[in-house]
Amino acid sequence: MRLRHADGSTVHLGYCTNVHPAEDLAGVLAQLDTYARPVREHLGADLLGLGLWLAAPVAAELAADPALTRRLRHELTVRGLEVVTLNGFPYAAFQAPVVKGDVYHPDWTTPDRLAYTLHLARVLADLLPDDAARGSISTLPLAWRDPWDPTRADAARHRLDQLADGLAAVERETGRSVRVGFEPEPGCVVESTAQAATVLSGMDVSRLGICLDLAHLACAWEEPAAALARLRDAGLPVVKVQVSAAVEAGDPAAARGALHRWVEPRFLHQTRSAGCAGGVDPADPAYAADDLDAALEARLPGAWRVHYHVPLHAPPEPPLTSTVPVLRDALAGLFAGPAAGCDHLDVETYTWGVLPAERRPRTDADLAAGIAAELAFARDELVAVGLTPATAAVPAGSGVRR
Is the full-model pTM beyond 0.90? Predict the structure, then answer.
């Protein structure tokens, strides 16, 4: 979906397809009819944005064969779908039975991560709608925090320089600009905007910036206005926003039984207590745990926020809640001013399949309806801060309802 900011700029809103398992092009294409087109139809929209996740082998295949990329673009177009952003954080097998810390490998100290991201950039340059100002790719915030030392930091910095050079080459060859956003995440080398301002200073900000995940922002107990100001002061552009919400427990002792029901084996659910606020190291073990079961065992003090993306429109049952208030404050900070703070937004709830059993979709149709409800929620929140729905042109001959 497209919206318009008061300054006239286009803001693209879509959903991230890393919620769907697909390790090859056939799987990616199958998603379009199983989920994406039904989501668009639920919304009554002529055009729906997708934040595609392409596993590394698919990205390499598409980058090596422009005819395949043209086919993918055609398949998107005839279904009323567009792509301005890719999720380049998971490398492969993101919906495997157990993911946990594997999602951080390969990291930005390796040539594999660089090659994958540049493959994505080449593919995205060919998928971009003709009227899109630019493309964006989100990626991990360098690496998991341990091990990390000056040698690894230097290697990562070298990869970032190579990345900027590679993105410049893509633009020279295609005429399309693609930016990469590093996504602060609990437990990583860059967990907070304060760490981003320090660790990522000096990179080429004409091509590299921040992907701001609003669930992660909440889990770091950051206040959105201060976080956005910190990024502005550091000269780090927000190139992409992941519109997401985390689980919150105001009284973890009282919510202990409810929290146990959210423990699951696939993803890490890093947990941070309110003690992380106010400049404390966000990974301090006195206030932080790398998974929800570890937090329950450690009995961290104070209120908790858990890195567990929950459907935006359907918060957990009391005594748990979600961090949607942080989401609202962040969107206001990004879009209530005279100029749009970002033009690419993805709803990224990749956890539908691991929600407590009674909250999981039973069918593909249920999942499509749930994603549509999240997108409607996000659209309404953006309208509330001053954006207006925009009608995007549907390509002639696409067969899409106008």
Answer: yes
